[in-house]
Amino acid sequence: MSQPQSPAPLSAPFVAPTRTRLSGRLTTLVPLAAAHADDLYAATHEQPRAEEREALWRYLFIGPFPDRAAFRAAVEKMEAATDAIWFAVLDGDGRAVGFQSYMNIEPANRAVEVGGVLYSPALQRSAAATEAQYLFAAHAFETLGCRRYVWKCDNANEKSKAAALRLGFSPEGLFRQHMIVKGRNRDTAWFSMLDSEWPARRAAFEAFLDPGNFDAFGRQKTPLSALNGQARAADRD
Fold first, then answer.
1. pTM score, two decimals?
2. I want to staple 48 with a disulfide (CB 3.0 to 4.6 A). Which of 27, 35, 53, 133 is the partner?
3. 192 φ/ψ angles, rounded to the nearest 5 degrees
4. Which residues, in sequence order, are CB contacts of 173 under 8 Å at separation 6+?
5. Angstrom distance (rounded) from CA 233 to CA 139
6. What distances in angstroms separate CA 172 from CA 9, 82, 193, 199, 204, one per listed residue?
7. Rounded CA gap, 5 and 43, in Å?
8. Which tens digits make up the pLDDT trace of 62-90?
9. Distance CA 81, CA 83 (A)
10. Helix axes 198-209, 127-142, angle to 10 degrees
11. CA 166 to chain centre
12. How confident is the model at residue 164 (pLDDT cuts 50, 70, 90)?
């Protein structure tokens, strides 16, 4: 039987997230800036087919945008934001192919949410996308000192809910008629990961991202969902 991890004391310090660089083997996260706007616009507006473009932005509070100028203005606003810290997700060639943020930052409760996640088709369903989430979670728990790490999404967004479970978050319930977004009702599904759970979740991430977990064609051998399933079973033991 595995021994539960002891969470940090409630009085442990919390470090507010800042505009920093998070580097991995497959991807790098850097502070979002206007300089990323052209690459991001191409990856999220020009390269996807029309139906893909609409799906990319459907559950976000903003977008899609009518032109590059409108998109750049939105990126500049995100760059200047103080209530959320936005990051660009870079591919191996240094091109911005997505973005995500730390938001709903609660220093008194040592809690933060990963949100505003937009991954272009070039990034979706890739090991680099998983690594981007791993880097964010690791930074939240190991540098910021979080005791609670949150994922929220529109309950109609089945892909986002499946991603939360795959990444190791646990479902917490539903806020009914929580918001009106783009003229539609939003019931919000909540998920979380705790500091006591992070060591097992970290081990699952690292086992998945290990180069030996992929064959010569880049296909995964053991899915992250299976690894986190094993971690959840260990949590219950």
1. 0.94
2. 53
3. -150, 165
4. 189, 190
5. 25
6. 23, 28, 10, 20, 21
7. 41
8. 999 999 999 999 999 999 999 999 999 99
9. 6
10. 150
11. 12
12. very high
Tokens coding 9:
């004391």
Q: Where are the alpha helices (H) located in the chain, listed in sequence order?
A: 37-41, 50-57, 68-80, 127-142, 158-167, 198-209, 224-236
Residue 229 exposed, middle or buried by CB count within 10 Å (0-12, 13-18, 19+): middle
The predicted structure's pLDDT at residue 231: 74
Q: Which two tokens stand for residue 74?
A: 């939105």
Report which of 151, 109, 133, 132 is spatially closest to residue 7, judged by C-alpha positions.
Answer: 109
Which amino acid, residue 3? Answer: Q
DSSP 81: -
Residues 202/210, Cβ–Cβ less than 8 Å = no
Query: Smallest Cα–Cα separation from 96: which of 137, 47, 142?
Result: 47
